[in-house]
Structures are given as structure tokens and as C-alpha cells.
Amino acid sequence: MLQVRSRLWLPFTQMQSFDAAARTFVRGEGSMLVDARGNRVYDAVSSIWTIVHGHGHPALVEAIAAQAARLDHATTLGASNPVAEELAARLCELTGTDYAFFGGDGASAIEAALKMALQYWQQNGAPERTRFVRLVDSYHGDTAGAMSLSDIAVFKSRFGAVQFESIPFDDDEALRAPDVAAVIVEPIVQAAAGIRIVPHERYAALRDCAPLVIVDEIATGFGRTGTMFAFEQLALRPDIVCVGKGITGGILALSATLASERIFAAFLGAPEERKQFFHGHSFAGNPIACAAALASLRLFEREGTLARAAAIARRSAARLERLARHPRVRETRQAGTMIGIELREPGSGAAVASALYERGVFTRPIGETIQFVPPLSSSDAEVESFFDALEAVLA
Ligand SMILES: Cc1ncc(COP(=O)(O)O)c(C=O)c1O
Predict the structure, then answer these.
(1) Which of the two ends of the chain, N or C, has the fewest CB atoms closer than 10 A to its terminal CB?
(2) What is the pTM of this model?
């Protein structure tokens, strides 16, 4: 008989050794999470790259409550709502795309992007274009299609039966193959690979050679790398942009697959032509989530979120300079407020993260890499507290 401690089954977590008493969060306040024992810890990983303006921001709480009272949910299968309309327009304006297709989690935005690309080519005279090119060490989510575009062996090795093969972007020739539907890239940072930084030159060929470019901004979007979207720094003109995580300020499940007019136009026709996009999710365009997203975008302007992100990045860069010389540190990596500190000693990531928790800092290691991806509302003192705690633990 199993000794069941809880009915909750957590993602990417060995439940046999999980100690709910030690790691249960009951409250969020600004940059801090409060656990069931009453410890206040700095959410130094923004609850896995989601939280933007801190936990419990009154403007977001208010927007959610007001929208819930007005229209909580209505399907977008063959129907619209004004909040989804307004958000679609704002997202298109911000990304230079033309149409927004909503989903739930990041992975559902990726699935939609893949299927959009396939159906696009079928309806645009090149049905043989069915394969996808992706970066080495890529990660795009855990559903079957997104996993097929990912390159992190431990996440996907069990599930070969539901995967298709994707092509690593080793050289520009890969993009020129006549059966390629699209190339998908994480711009500038590969977060799940351990906050790896991709040199800007790597993206240059995409401008000329790729049949369609899908940019995955799910981790990098909404200010994390310094600009609203990381691809702005790469002079890329994506055909499709996927956003998620931080879109609602990082507090509700919402994602979007943003498409250019070229893509959208291929799906227009008389009903009997059956050219509409054959894909959808129950909560696509949920008004409460969309209201939170609109409120979050207003906060970017009202609170100068990008300027705060720049200040966090500068302060972190100064501390990283010193850390990079620490004998226990192999390498430090930074793109804006996405920071990885890779330790030398094999197996030390989990132990260092545990010790950080005891010092009031919550992060999740990726192998030997300690992540610092803080809420963009973090104060200078909070940023310093992360580096102080890490230096103390390493000492
Ligand atoms: C770059 C990237 N794409 C897609 C995803 C999948 O998003 P979600 O976990 O919301 O499904 C993630 C999640 O970490 C990600 O980092």
C-alpha cells in the first residue's frame, strides 16, 4: 500500500521524496512568497519566468475582479468578446504582427504555431513543407508537438512514441530544404537549457533563408531581456510569434500565437472550402485572463517596468562580475534580467538552491546552473539580497 501524503501530483517532481511541509506556498506579496511555515522567500525565479509586476499587484487583482463580475467566460469558438479583441490589437501592435490566436499555456501556443504553419503551406501551394527546424538545445514545452521541437533529452526520451523528428539548425543549409515548413527559435536566451545565451549572429540567416520564422517569446517576452520582446534586438521579422507566461503579468494561464497577415490570409475562403484553422482550446481568449493582460500592459507604462528591468540588469551585471571570478563558479550568463550562474562542482545545484531557501531566496536549479530571473518589480535591495545570499552560500 502506498503511503499517500497528498493527492497532489506535481510536475517534474519525484513525489516519493517531496516534502509538502517544507515547500508549500500560501501567500504572495510583491516579490515574496510566504510558505506554510511562515517563511518569506524572494521569488528569485519569478515562479518559473512568469511573474512580472510581483505577486498580488492591486491593479491586476482589481482588473480580474471587475472582469469576473462583468463577463467571466464565453467561448471564442465562433464568438468574440471585447477584452480579447482589445488584447489582440495591443499584442499585434507591440509585436508588429497582424492577428492574435489565443491559447492557454505556452505549449498550446506552440502547438497552434506548428499546425498553423502546416495548414498554411497546404493552402498556399506547398503541402510538401511539413518539417521543422529548431535550435540545438531548444525547449518549447511538454505537449507532443512542442516536445518534438525540443532538444533536452531527459524531458523527451520516454515519449518517442508520440514524437516526430525535427531538424537541428546546425548550418544555414537546413533552412533551404524544400520540405521545411518553418524554423522555430528561442530569441537570445534558451532558458530551459540553463539560461544559455545564443549569439545574435546565429539568427542572421533566418532573415533570408527560412520559409517561415516562428519566434518563441514564451520565456523571454514582456521585458525579461531588456526590450519588450527579445526578437526586437535581432532585427528579425517573424511570421509567427508565440507568447505566454508573462502575458498576464504572469498570474493567469493565457498564451497567444500571433501571426502576420501573410499567414492569416491563407486561411480565408468560403465555408465550403474548409480553410479555417482547425485548432482550438476551451479557454482561448478567456475574458478574465485577457483583462489581466491588458492591466499588465498598462502597468508597463504606468510603472516604467522596462526601466526597472534595466536597473535590475545593471545591478546584477555588477555583482556577476565579481561572482564570475569565484572559484566555485564556472560561468555566469546574462541577458537582461535572465541570469544563470553555473557552478563547477557536479551535483551542487540542488544543494546550493536548498541552502539559498534557508537564507530566504527561492530559486530552482537547472543542473548546476542557479537561476536568477526575478520579478521585474524587484527593488535594488531585493536584487542585492539574492547575490548576498548566493555569495554567503558559496563561501
Ligand atoms: C521557451 C519556452 N517555450 C515554451 C514553454 C512552454 O510553456 P508552458 O510551460 O506554459 O507550457 C516554455 C516553458 O518554460 C519555454 O521556456
Answers:
(1) N
(2) 0.98
